[in-house]
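lol forgot to send this yesterday, sorry. struct tokens for the thing we talked abt
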């Protein structure tokens, strides 16, 4: 299989739908996932065990495996332990910088308003682990929750006859309170509704494949979720100065996550487009997960695209709203200035997406399927709720009294107006 260069100007309506309304295979499985979710809701652990046997080929013993994480940490080799700790420290530092302060100030005489922030009490973090293990996702999901002050952070992660020790150790370092050996849609349903073994949570966060993502969509409404963080995506915007091998390496890297991943390079330079397509072919052949990569490259939402101008490439990217946006060009900042919709941005030739995937400190749990049009990735705010607070003095209330009563009367809500008039009258009588 070779990667073809396609001209943006030639894309028809069906191509545009494939790029801009991409669903990573999620829509087609939503009925099957609904059935899994409903069975776990009704039958608890029995259904969890049955689906785990069917989809993971594992007969579950204990569903809760919290103690195994600390043991795995103690047995870990020094270099891996150091890598986990460095990554966790960097992620912690970046997320601590996001902690908002409670505040109050006077907006008018005697009218004091403010906001305060408190953590959600119980959250569940999905840590993927089907076709690859994701210790990094344990750090990305759990550390911000701990920084926010969440009281109970539960992790669910797919089981295996031999659980990945690096994954377990990373969950321990990140600071989870409870860990359950369950994956896929059954894990999401377990967190959403609770089972005999799994404590029900108030919000579920974290990435996963199409089964996990479809399950998050199914339980949304009964439990809060962060956003849909499905199979990985990247768009690389490149000009004629970009090294085509590096552009190709970005596509191949994100493609190795999942055959449902979507990877795009878009450039205004025909030679660069040809060179990127050739480099993608060459690099794919050399990769261990060649089949997965080829699956992703074959997607209708993947490709190497030639634009007639950088403006056209930028418009395409804005409409695509990728999870990851890499810009490798002469003037990256001015291109970035014109793009609002992207989960996480990587500027310049020395900033691979893998830096954010693992260790720079930003979060790699990011919206896919165009979610970046309306939301950013996981952050400390994901785990906080805000409350507004106000205190009015007699002067403060008198100052806005007519405004309130006029609007309350206009809405026909006389008792609202009365609750204000009484106070104003009382304070006038006090004078
Ligand atoms: N968007 C993000 O922020 C982000 C971050 C990291 C990873 N990811 C994505 O996470 C995903 C990880 O995928 P994965 O598969 O390796 O692990 P996973 O943990 O997401 O999925 C594995 C689970 O899928 C379920 N499953 C598999 N086949 C099934 C079937 N036929 N029917 C029902 N359930 C089935 C199984 O129960 C299994 O436990 C990738 O798509 C990757 O791109 C996304
Ligand atoms: N690129 C993924 C987010 O889409 C995150 C990840 C984890 N490990 C490697 N990469
Ligand atoms: Zn990645």
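and heres what i got for the seq, position by position
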């Amino acid at each position: 299989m070779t990667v073809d260069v396609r001209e943006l100007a030639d894309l028809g309506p069906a191509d545009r739908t494939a790029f801009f309304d991409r669903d990573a295979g999620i829509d087609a499985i939503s009925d099957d996932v609904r059935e899994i979710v409903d069975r776990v809701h009704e039958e608890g652990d029995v259904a969890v065990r049955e689906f785990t046997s069917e989809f993971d080929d594992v007969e579950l013993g204990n569903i809760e495996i919290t103690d195994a994480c600390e043991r795995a940490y103690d047995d870990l080799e020094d270099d891996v332990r150091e890598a986990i700790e460095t990554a966790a420290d960097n992620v912690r530092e970046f997320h601590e910088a996001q902690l908002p302060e409670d505040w109050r100030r006077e907006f008018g005489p005697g009218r004091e308003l403010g906001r305060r922030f408190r953590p959600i009490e119980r959250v569940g973090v999905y840590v993927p682990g089907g076709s690859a293990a994701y210790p990094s996702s344990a750090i990305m999901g759990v550390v911000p929750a701990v920084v926010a002050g969440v009281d109970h952070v539960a992790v669910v992660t797919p089981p295996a006859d031999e659980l990945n020790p690096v994954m377990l150790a990373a969950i321990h370092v990140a600071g989870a309170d409870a860990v359950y050996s369950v994956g896929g849609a059954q894990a999401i349903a377990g967190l959403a509704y609770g089972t005999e073994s799994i404590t029900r949570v108030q919000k579920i966060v974290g990435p996963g494949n199409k089964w996990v993502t479809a399950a998050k969509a199914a339980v949304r409404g009964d439990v809060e979720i962060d956003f849909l963080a499905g199979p990985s995506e990247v768009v690389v915007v490149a000009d004629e100065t970009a090294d085509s091998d590096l552009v190709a390496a970005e596509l191949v890297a994100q493609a190795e996550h999942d055959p449902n991943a979507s990877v795009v390079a878009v450039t205004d330079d025909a030679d660069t487009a040809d060179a990127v397509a050739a480099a993608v072919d060459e690099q794919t052949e050399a990769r261990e997960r060649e089949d997965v990569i080829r699956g992703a490259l074959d997607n209708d939402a993947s490709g190497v695209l030639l634009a007639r101008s950088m403006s056209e490439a930028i418009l395409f990217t804005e409409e695509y709203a990728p999870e990851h946006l890499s810009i490798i060009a002469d003037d990256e900042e001015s291109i970035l200035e014109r793009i609002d919709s992207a989960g996480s941005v990587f500027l310049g030739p020395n900033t691979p997406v893998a830096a954010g995937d693992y260790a720079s400190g930003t979060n790699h749990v990011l919206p896919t399927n165009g979610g970046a049009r309306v939301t950013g990735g996981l952050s400390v705010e994901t785990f906080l709720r805000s409350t507004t607070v106000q205190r009015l003095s007699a002067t403060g209330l008198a100052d806005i009294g007519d405004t309130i009563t006029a609007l309350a009367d206009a809405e026909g809500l006389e008792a609202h107006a009365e609750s204000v008039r009484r106070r104003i009258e009382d304070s006038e009588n006090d004078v």
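The chain has a mean pLDDT of 97. anyway ping me if u want another try
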